[in-house]
Amino acid sequence: MTEKIVSLAELARSIPDGASIGFGGSFLHRGPFALVRELARRGARDLEVIKASPGYDIDLLARAHAVSRAKTGIVAIEGGFGLAPAYRRAIEDGDLKLEEHSCMTIAAGLRAAAAGVPFAPVAGVFGSDLLELNKWKTVVDPYGTGKETVVVPAIAPDVAVIHANEVDARGNARVYGSPHWDHPLTRAAKRVLVTAERLVSTEHLAQQPELTLVPGFMVEALAIVPRGAWPGSLHPDYEVDYQAVAAYLEPGDEALARHLAGAPEAQAFVRA
Description:
Elements: H1 8-13, E1 20-23, H2 33-41, E2 47-51, H3 56-63, E3 67-72, H4 85-92, E4 97-100, H5 103-115, E5 119-122, H6 130-133, E6 137-140, E7 148-153, E8 159-167, E9 173-174, H7 182-188, E10 191-199, H8 202-206, E11 212-214, E12 221-224, H9 242-248, H10 253-262, H11 264-271
């Protein structure tokens, strides 16, 4: 099964321009950020980002002019840094078309796609502008209460990419800590790609099978990328590198180039 193991560059090249991508993790935590940076390095264009709570990932792709569409809930860099400036600028300039969601409407849409149904009910939308903004429909309870419920269309990304703590050669991916939104995301997407901190044996994963977030038969390809969630955190391996996040947020193309060149995966390539 080693044919599933590819380089980070190969993994990024397998995502075509124009694709819709669902990124795993939440804010600065356990995102597949090395893969995001590799998409920027290869000059990806016209991507759509789908994520309930993105931040650094969508901001970096907006800064690299790689993203043109997005379905998102809350978007922020987090950690006291506030909103995502490049993402916000792209929307204000008309370079990025946003379909605005709440986190739970994204989750509902993903769950609908995962279940193979055209829509899913969701609570908490009445009273917001999302219903009118997105032209979402309501259905009346067919069981006789007369209660109206908002239904959100299915969301099926072309590709889901998650970062895991451990993976075996078959693609079985283990995550410690919160799964965030990754379970419905990986079930909704047409393709699933994984980056992981380390390669382990199938026997190791079998000792605690309940920690396997994504079974190998769902995974098309994987790359082993130590510190692949940097500058974010990966529980319990490392915390957020707030100094690196602050450096990333410095304005200008030179600051972005320095950030990409100083990332762990870039340094590993130079050492190799």
